[in-house]
Write a structure and sequence with these properties.
Strands 1-2 form a two-stranded antiparallel ribbon. It has six helices and two strands. The protein starts with 18 loop residues before the first strand and ends with a helix. It is 58% helix and 3% strand. It has a domain of 103 residues: Functional domain of the splicing factor Prp18 (RNA Binding Protein, Prp18, Chain A). It is mostly helical.
Length: 148
Amino acid sequence: MAQNQPLPNAHPPMGGPGIRPTMGAPRPVGPPPTSQMMGAGSGGSSDASLMEVQQSLTSLLSLYLELEKNPKVKQDTNSRINALLGNLGGVSAPVILGLRQLTSSAEACDYVTANNVHREIAQKYFPETKEWINNLKFIIQVKQKNNA
C-alpha cells in the first residue's frame, strides 16, 4: 500500500470531524465561540470599560444615597457597592460588560433594559456577584421610583 493513501475503513479522529483529540474532553477546532451576551464585542479597552463602570456606579450610588430613606438598607448598599468598586479590577470581563450596559441603561432611564441585564448577570454569574447584585437592584429601583 502506498504511503500517502488513507487506510481503508479509516475513521476520523476521536470526537468526529472538526474535533481534535486531546487529553480529557474533546475540544472543537477553530477559534473559540464569541459570546453575544450583553453587548459583548462592542469594542473599547478593558481599562476604559472599568473606568466607565466605576464612574457610572459612583454616580448612581451617590444619587441612591441621597434618595434612600431606610438607613439600614442605605448603609448595607453603600458598603457592598463600595466593596465592588474597590475590587472592580478583579471582576470578570463578561460581568464588566454587563455592568457597563446596566449602568448606561439606568442612567438613560431605560429601566426595562437595566432590569433585564441585571437579571442576566444574576443568573449567569451569581457566584461572582452574590455579594452585591441585589444591592445594585435596589439602586435601580430607587432611581426608577424617583423618575416616575
